Amino acid sequence: MIPVCRIDDLPEGEAVRITVDDHTPAIAVFHAEDGGFYAVDDLCSHQDASLSEGYVEGCLVECPLHAALFDLRTGAATCLPARRPVRTHEVAVIDGVLHVRPAVREDAVA
Length: 110
Hints:
Layout: E1 2-6, E2 15-18, E3 27-31, E4 37-41, E5 55-57, E6 60-62, E7 69-71, E8 88-94, E9 97-101
Antiparallel strand pairs: 1-9, 2-3, 3-4, 4-8, 5-6, 6-7, 8-9
Organism: Streptomyces benahoarensis
GO molecular function: 2 iron, 2 sulfur cluster binding; 3-phenylpropionate dioxygenase activity; metal ion binding; monooxygenase activity
Protein name: Bifunctional 3-phenylpropionate/cinnamic acid dioxygenase ferredoxin subunit
């Protein structure tokens, strides 16, 4: 798991963007309004826009470019113009530090 930040450093309703390596897409880590922490691919599935710069509403993030909504819990696109989901990543809090385990890319080769 990759350490992101202390949970106290990510206010509710905010997000942080992390990069893992040159082969893994950037990840947006959110502190949702339900108090939960969620991580999804940072790139909107509709068009190139950073979801970490979007607007958090409950457990949804609104893309800042065309207002598509994504459920942070499942990655599902909940309204147009987005039709495809974004990938979710495992999140854990360990000793007050937020950690993310990037999901394995489906097209990755062993």
